[in-house]
Specification:
Layout: H1 2-24, H2 31-60, H3 67-94
Helix pairs in contact: 1-2, 1-3, 2-3
Bound molecules: zinc ion.
Protein name: Zinc-ribbon domain-containing protein
Organism: Desulforamulus aeronauticus DSM 10349
InterPro entries: Zinc_ribbon_dom
Length: about 120
């Protein structure tokens, strides 16, 4: 079951790293870096879920005691999922919101004078 172990250990490493990043991100860690981290974590998620499926099928076929292994891998995958969610929240906080049209709530550019959807004049804030 060496490959499964590798996968879940790797997942743990990345999980720790993501936590570290989340912690530090008060000090403006670039959003691009976090996005990159998310894409890495997402790849791990895919691998993990694949491995869980494989293990589950082996269990179904009666190959050894796999319930614990499946549980462990699910736990670590959930951790990765949580880390992704945390990073997304951080990115949201660091990304300035586009101004919205007061009438129709369409997202506008910073310098828009009129709403391109409904034509409402945008007052300077
Ligand atoms: Zn509008």
């Amino acid at each position: 079951m060496e490959f499964i172990k590798n996968i879940s250990e790797k997942a743990k490493d990345f999980g720790e790293k993501a936590k570290e990043i989340t912690k530090r991100s008060g000090e403006l860690l670039e959003v691009t870096k976090m996005r990159y981290e998310i894409s890495k974590l997402e790849r791990i998620m895919v691998n993990n879920v694949e491995a869980i499926g494989e293990l589950y099928f082996r269990k179904f076929k009666g190959e050894g005691e796999l319930a614990e292994e499946i549980e462990r891998l699910c736990q670590s995958t959930q951790g990765v999922e949580q880390d992704i969610a945390n990073l997304r929240t951080q990115i949201e906080k660091l990304t300035p919101k586009a101004p919205l049209c007061p009438k129709c709530q369409t997202a506008l550019t910073e310098e828009a004078k009129f709403c391109h959807n409904c034509g409402t004049k945008i007052e300077e804030q």
